[in-house]
């Protein structure tokens, strides 16, 4: 069995990812962000082209079930731009869905995840390459536990990695206790997102010591201005011997955040974040974080 990354164009050798934006959104729609939907194909194409122009090679889209993934549009966009795209199955926090949709998933959530990983998302034929779920603020509610149990079941059936939205960067140890402890998901199959939003170095080290991946993704917003702490947090983890478990992403979730609409967008990761981290860590370490680490984090011996 050969290890491969499952992209929207099919399985590829992990080395083919090149420079990887390990957490972003090409399409996204949520009632929590009215009027800020990422839904226009032309804007997505332009954003991918801008990312490619900065040296980007691949993007992992963390948009899960029911939030406007537009899976059928992803393969042509990947072909047209030359950027590899990995799609997600999974489920976000309950606030992003109505009760009717959640009710339809009761009792069959893991089945849905497995089908999207192995058969395809809807009628698109596009297979997901990871499972995205979400924790709560400093804890896990019933919805989070339900989705994580389904994600663990799907992981055990397929080998797919599990990516976790940490609310404002919190709750990472609770997530690991559930997924890697009780539910027996290997830590190297878990990716924790948004750690930059809660720059607690002690918690970061505790999480890293389990062997999971730690993603620092997205420039700060007004309510979590932590950009100035992020390089130091990444350096502390690298200095402690965890440089092979670090990932970087852009996490573009609104139309106004796209570079083509005047925001930082996906190119910001390579245009501004990369040189800032190179000044802190050196080029070789940053290259490892952008290229080698994603090739291992998202590679699976698919079952």
Structure characterization notes:
Keywords: Hydrolase, Metal-binding. This is Phosphotriesterase. It comes from Streptomyces plumbiresistens. InterPro entries: Metal_Hydrolase, Phosphotriesterase. Belongs to the metallo-dependent hydrolases superfamily. Phosphotriesterase family. With 303 residues, the protein is α/β, with parallel strands linked by helices. It has one domain (4-300): TIM Barrel (Alpha-Beta Barrel), CATH 3.20.20. The protein is 38% helix and 15% strand. The protein has ten helices and twelve strands. It has helices at residues 41-53, 74-81, 99-105, 109-118, 142-158, 172-182, 201-208, 230-242, 268-281, 283-297, and strands at 4-7, 10-12, 20-24, 58-61, 84-86, 88-90, 130-134, 162-165, 190-193, 213-217, 246-249, 299-300. The strands form three sheets. The chain has a six-stranded parallel β-sheet with strand order 6-7-8-9-10-11. A three-stranded antiparallel β-sheet has the order 2-1-12. The chain is globular. The model has no long low-confidence stretch (mean pLDDT 96).
Features:
303 residues; TIM Barrel; 6-stranded parallel sheet; 3-stranded antiparallel sheet; 10 helices; 12 strands; globular; Metal_Hydrolase; metal-binding; hydrolase
Brief sketch in words of this structure:
With 303 residues, the chain is an alpha/beta fold.
CATH homologous superfamily (4th level) name: Metal-dependent hydrolases
Q: Which strand order does the major sheet show?
A: 6-7-8-9-10-11
The CATH topology corresponds to: TIM Barrel
Q: Which descriptor suits the 3D outline?
A: globular
Radius of gyration, whole Å: 17 Å
Number of domains: 1
The low-pLDDT segments are none
Beta-strand residue fraction: 15-25%
Helix content: 25-40%
SSE string:
EEEHEHEEHHEHEHEHEHEHHE
Secondary-structure content class: alpha/beta
Write down the CATH class. Answer: Alpha Beta
* CATH architecture label: Alpha-Beta Barrel
Mean pLDDT: 96
């Amino acid at each position: 069995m050969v290890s491969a990354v499952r992209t929207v164009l099919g399985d590829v050798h992990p080395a083919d990812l090149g420079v990887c934006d390990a957490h972003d959104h090409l399409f996204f729609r949520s009632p929590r962000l009215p009027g800020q939907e990422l839904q226009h194909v032309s804007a997505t194409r332009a954003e991918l082209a801008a990312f490619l122009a900065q040296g980007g090679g691949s993007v992992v889209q963390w948009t899960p079930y029911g939030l406007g993934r537009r899976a059928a549009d992803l393969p042509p966009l990947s072909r047209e731009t030359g950027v590899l795209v990995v799609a997600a199955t999974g489920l976000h926090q309950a606030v992003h869905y109505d009760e009717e949709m959640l009710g339809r998933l009761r009792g069959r959530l893991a089945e849905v995840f497995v089908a999207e990983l192995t058969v395809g998302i809807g009628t698109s034929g596009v297979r997901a390459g990871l499972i995205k779920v979400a924790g709560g603020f400093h804890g896990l509610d019933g919805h989070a536990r339900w989705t994580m149990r389904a994600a663990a079941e799907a992981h055990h059936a397929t080998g797919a990695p599990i990516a976790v939205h940490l609310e404002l960067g919190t709750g990472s140890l609770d997530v690991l206790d559930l997924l890697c402890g009780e539910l027996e998901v290997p830590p190297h199959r878990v990716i924790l997102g948004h750690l930059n939003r809660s720059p607690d170095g002690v918690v970061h080290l505790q999480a890293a010591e389990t062997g999971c991946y730690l993603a620092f993704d997205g420039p700060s917003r007004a309510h979590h201005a932590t950009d100035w702490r992020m390089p130091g947090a990444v350096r502390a983890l690298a200095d402690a011997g965890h440089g092979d478990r670090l990932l970087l992403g852009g996490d573009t979730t609104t139309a106004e955040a796209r570079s083509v609409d005047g925001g930082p967008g996906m190119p910001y990761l390579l245009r501004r974040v990369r040189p800032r981290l190179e000044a802190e860590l050196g080029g070789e370490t940053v290259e490892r974080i952008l290229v080698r680490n994603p090739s291992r984090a998202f590679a699976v011996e698919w079952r």
